[in-house]
Write a structure and sequence with these properties.
Elements lengths: L16 H4 L8 H23 L29 H8 L3 H17 L7 E4 L8 H11 L5 E4 L1 H11 L5 E2 L6 H6 L2 E4 L2 E4 H16 L2
Parallel strand pairs: 1-2
Antiparallel strand pairs: 3-5, 4-5
């Protein structure tokens, strides 16, 4: 079957010689131009790094590569929690947890140290007041506290024996509102929890 031709007489789908030239190929002039551009870029980068006092690429000593190598030993099951945190929690949020644990054990537990505790975000609705804040205070690890009012307010729910529940964060807000359920992400509680807490503070304020 004969191929259709365009108005200029070239077959459709044919190579556009007027644009690329009849001798263009992957191993031809364009390939040499690409290699030349890469060589120029490499030379410029090396010159720039040298002017900044930085070692060339591939050098073993680099100011950004001074951290401990990530080369953990395999976990055997005989490790303590401290072993795992120090030797296996090496990056991402695990590394931030390791840093927090080391700050606590190496600084906050010193004999002569003053520890301040700051609270923000919805911590007490998740039960952190009972789980860790109260034990830390009772054990003498906290000398002073700065907190948002919301944390103090929501902690009162537990003091009044009001019920907080784990819930599904994907639940519809429209449905929850219709059912009279308040949520803080995946913490669910009845709307009456807020009313009862407000009533408690109102009575305390008025003395009734």
């Amino acid at each position: 079957m004969a191929k259709k031709k365009n108005q200029d007489g070239r077959e459709r789908g044919g190579f556009k010689s007027s644009r690329h030239g009849s001798k263009a190929s992957a191993a031809g002039p364009k390939s040499r131009q690409k290699r030349a551009a890469e060589d120029r870029e490499r030379a410029a980068t090396t010159k720039h790094r040298a002017s900044d006092g930085l070692p060339p690429h591939g050098a073993t000593h680099h100011r950004f590569l001074g951290g401990e190598p990530i080369a953990p030993a395999g976990i055997t099951g005989s490790e303590t929690a401290a072993d795992l945190i120090d030797n296996a929690f090496l990056a991402y949020n695990a590394a931030r947890l390791r840093e927090a644990c080391q700050l606590f054990t190496r600084k906050m537990l010193d004999d002569d140290v003053t520890v301040g505790l700051t609270l923000t975000g919805a911590l007490t609705p998740a039960g952190l007041g009972m789980a860790c804040l109260i034990p830390l205070i009772e054990s003498g690890y906290v000398d002073w506290i700065i907190s948002t009012g919301a944390n103090l307010y929501h902690d009162t729910h537990f003091g009044l024996g009001l019920s907080m529940h784990r819930g599904n964060p994907l639940e519809s807000d429209v449905v929850l509102r219709e059912e009279g359920i308040v949520r803080i992400y995946d913490v669910f509680f009845d709307y009456d929890v807020l009313l009862s807490t407000d009533a408690f503070f109102s009575r305390r304020h008025t003395g009734s």
